[in-house]
Write a structure and sequence with these properties.
8 helices; 5 strands; single chain; mainly alpha
Amino acid sequence: ARARGQIKSFTGADRKTVEAEAAQWQAGLIDDCESITLTKAYQRYFEAKEKVLSPSTLRNYKKMQKNNFQSIMELKITALTDEKIQRAVNELSADRSPKTVRNNYGLLTAVLSMFRPNYHPKVQLPQKIKKDIYIPTKAELSVLLEKAKDTNYYIPILLAATCGMRAGEICALTSDDIFGNKINVNKSLVCDSAGKWLIKQPKSYAGYRSID
C-alpha cells in the first residue's frame, strides 16, 4: 500500500479506466509512472523484451520509436488520451503507408499495455491497402537464372524461387543443413540494432521446416 498522505492524480478516457488505475496504484500493484515519458516507456519496454525479441524485430522497433509519433513521445504516458493519439496517427498517415501506421500503433499499444494496463486507446486507423504482388513467369525466371549462372547469385536465386526460402534463411544455410534431398531450415542471418550480423533461430515455431 502507498504511504499515508501520498497523493497522485489520474487522467484517462473515462471514469472506469481512471478509477481502475487509481485502485491499482493505491494497492502498490503498478509503478508510479507519472514522471515517465512515452520515450522512456518505449526504452523500458525494449529492455524488458530484449532477450525474447529477435534482433531484427528489436532493431525495427527502435527505428519506430526514433522516427514516428514524435508529437507525443515526450508526453508523460499518464497524459496520453485518445484524442492525442488520434492526432499522432493522423500525422503519421499523411506520408506513411497504412501498414506502417498500423505497425507503429501496434507497438504503441504494446508499450502502453505494460505501463498503463487499464488504458485501451480507441482510435481510427487508415484502411488497409491490398498489395499487388508481382510474380515472375517461368520464362522470366529462366532468363534470370541464365544471367546468374557461374556467379555467387545462382544458388541463392534458385533456392528462393523453387524452395520458398527467405533471404535470411538462405544466407544462414550450410552444408550441415542438407540431408539427402531435404533442406533443414533451422536458423536465419539477421542484423541487430548495432548493425552486427547474427545467426539466430527462427522467429516462430513455423519457421522450422524441412523442404524438398
